[in-house]
Amino acid sequence: MTLIKVILLTAIIMLLAGLGFIYSGVYPMGADVPHNGLTYRALETLREQSIARAAADIQVPDLSDAELLLAGGPDYNDMCAQCHLKPGVKRSDMSIGLYPSPPNLSLALDDHQHTHAGGNTASAKRQFWIIKHGIKASGMPAWGPTHDDQRIWAMVAFIQKLPTLTPEQYQILTAREPAETSHH
Amino acid sequence: MKKILMNAALILSSTLLIAPAFAHDPAEHAKTAEAPDCEAMKKMDHSKMDMNDPVMQALMKKCSAAHSEHGDQHQGMDHDKTTATSKAASSANHEGHGSH
């Protein structure tokens, strides 16, 4: 009985201490002050486990169609390149200022700061889910409410090929079709 | 209660109807759109190009589309009404592009 009382008392004290910490406002929320190592690892693990579970049942379509690259390239350039960069660009105001730092998707999987198990299929599932749903408190928006799945898969197809592109190839693939410009 | 349900249904349906209007429209970028720099294709090492690679296929499609678009523009122009300056510029552009 005494043990139960001690456990309960400890739990209440911890709860009150947690609430006190939250309401005290002492935790630095600025994006220019990184989390401590423990908090960062806890949040990263939470994020990766959550995405892996949510994306597990996604069926990856054939992403080898050249038309997907032509559709996804301009969208990537308009919507993603400022934060996730492009071939020949190592940093931008957004990539420096955002926290956590957005991965440089123009680098191969092994080189963009963290790795993901499962190869290209798992990577494609993950990218599709992240583009569609976004990530809380990271600056990554959910594009799903305004973009259909086909358009998101085209971006995934482009991102899968992005590390292999030269700056010149990137420019050609991401340029908006002449037919889409205002003079037509 | 019925009124509340009706209002909720109306708000939900109007939200769903409006949502596609917020979709990222490629036309928004028309003013800042760049033309593909297909001249850069000529500088690439063609011996290393794999025509089965979707990237190469996409590059070829993009540049062939850009070339045909360029050709269409010139076909649609009334060359009799163009000024000597624009004719000179057009001629210079064709030299830069090589054969169409």
Structure explained in plain terms:
- The complex is a heterodimer of chains A (184) and B (100).
- Chain A is an all-alpha fold and 184 residues long.
- Chain A has helices at 2-24, 37-55, 66-79, 81-84, 93-97, 119-133, 149-161, 167-174.
- Chain A has a domain at 49-176: Cytochrome Bc1 Complex, Chain D, domain 2 (Orthogonal Bundle).
- With 100 residues, chain B is mainly alpha-helical.
- Chain B contains four helices and no strands.
- The chains are: A mainly alpha (184), B mainly alpha (100).
- Chain A binds chain B through residues 64-70, 73-75, 78-79, 143, 145-147, 157, 161, 164-166, 168-169, 171-173, 175-182, and chain B through 19-20, 22-24, 26-27, 29-31, 33-38, 40-41, 43-44, 54-55, 57-59, 61-63, 65-66, 69-70.
Key phrases:
heterodimer; A: 184 residues; mainly alpha; Cytochrome Bc1 Complex, Chain D, domain 2; 8 helices; disordered C terminus; B: 100 residues; 4 helices; elongated
Task: Detail the topology: elements first, then pairings.
The complex is a heterodimer of chains A (about 180) and B (about 100).
Chain A: H1 2-24, H2 37-55, H3 66-79, H4 81-84, H5 93-97, H6 119-133, H7 149-161, H8 167-174
Chain B: H1 2-18, H2 39-43, H3 54-76, H4 84-97
